[in-house]
Amino acid sequence: MKDFTHPDVVLCPGGPMLLRGDHVVEDDAGVRHRTVRPVSAVCRCGRSGTLPWCDSTHRLLPREQRP
Ligand code: FES
User: Is residue 67 in a domain?
Assistant: First the structure.
């Protein structure tokens, strides 16, 4: 049975999407990136300097431009 106390995907309000476990993320260019951490943060604002991963740049954005 699936453990609902620890979801695999969490959408953070105004911030990234957290992925728990081993995943492959395909970026806008079709390049595939494998997660390497127990929890990985995928950028949803598109402004990260380390796309597809979140580098916390979203925190510098005005609230209306955050995901
Ligand atoms: S969501 Fe964090 S830098 Fe884009």
Answer: no
Q: How many angstroms separate the alpha carbon of residue 6 from the centre of ligand 1?
A: 22
pTM to 2 decimal places: 0.90
The three-state secondary structure class of 65 is: helix
Cα separation, 56 vs 41, in Å, equals 9
Domain that holds residue 41: 9-58
Q: How far is the CA of 18 from the centre of ligand 1 (A)?
A: 11
The count of structural domains within the chain is 1
pLDDT in tens, 22-44: 999 999 999 999 999 999 999 99
